[in-house]
Amino acid sequence: MKKFTSxxxxxxxxxxxxxxxxxxxxxxxxxxxxxMTGGFENNVEQWTYLNKxxxxxxxxxxLAFFAKALDGFIDLPFAYLIDKIKCKFGRRKMGLLIGVVxxxxxxxxxxxxxxxxxxxxxxxxxxxxxxxxxxxxxxxxLTYYATFRxxxxxxKDVMFLSNVKSIFDVVYFxxxxxxxxxxxxxxFNIRTIALIFLPLSLTMLIPFFxxxxxVNNEDEENNIxxxxxxxxxxxxxFKCSFTNKTxxxxxxxxxxxxxxxxxxxxxxxxxxxxxxxxxxxxxxxSFAPVPLTIMAYNKxxxxxxxxxxxxxxxxxxxxxxxxxxxxxxxxxxxxxLGLHIVAVLGGIFISFSIGAFFxxxxxxxxxxxxxxxxxxxxxxxxxxxxxxxxxxGIAAGIATGIILVALKRFDCIWLLPxxxxxxxxxxxxxxxxxxxxxxxxxxxxxxxx
Length: 449
Hints:
CATH architecture of the largest domain: Up-down Bundle
Radius of gyration: 22 Å
Oligomer: single chain
Strand content: under 5%
CATH superfamily of the largest domain: MFS general substrate transporter like domains
Shape: globular
Structural class: mainly alpha
């Protein structure tokens, strides 16, 4: 694989995933909710497909949970598959091609109901398409992420590319949660808005033009042979992952918090649909400051360690959720300006936590895997990320496939911020059982003068 030699190349490559990630956000946060009217009070005709339920709630709960869980489990075979592809066109390019095209097709198909009623046929149709979408989306992103180390010449370049990718994560979150309410206010239906954003998926063409595979066939073969020598069996990787008590306890802890985060991302539109708040302003305050909050979180962690920093961001996120609950009920009848000020403050609180969550999901498994390598000599970082995907997929399924659907079904969407806050409380309590490897992770050692 030809290495990138300039920062401009790394920046351009780092933005490649923006469009496909945008489709995933649109699917999880908007289109799945748009199949049901529950929770929406204003602009229901725009927020939903046909201004009525077009899926059976009970069956959709099962299928939505299964699709989200599949998104986690599918990481394991796909991670193995993309390393085994052999093609003159280039194994990474072929992996991207196999993933991108069906991802776009299934996204478009999800916009088309088979009929205009809440039937089993409609529900199964959307459930199957959702499973296919997440499967091919996962294949696309796993292939893309697998190229990060291959296109970078140094560890410094890898870190730079990862940071660029995190910034573009914020961009698509901001686009998704800030711009879409503007289109809704302009009376565009959510399906029309989905088609407006669809061309962004073309950013994934960037790797096709930038990747130069098989530049030196001898070097390529040597790299593949080295990978095969270092690879441990799937059984060994599973054993390392599930017998590492530090890692598994971290997985349970982060899964609880993921439920709260996914509830926020998947249901915040319903929570605010009756408040007359300008969602563009509120959501921009939640995501625009994230690059700065990531830097602030990292500095905070260097001083006190991850355990303390983690508890701090959980507290901040819980407070942010309760502030948004206050905005929902507006018990003191604040003016529109006053309510917006409070909502923006809550959004800023949330942005600090979101920045930390972005950082944690990358840093903790990597650090635990490095400790495992130092202890046993086994490289299991890829498996750790795959297992984390399983846990997070199940958590996301519980959040958006079970809890959120139930809140919409029984018209009690106001409970969402409370449940999200409770997950933070549980995560806060569980964090006191972290061992020193996690609690002190990231803390700079004091220099004795």
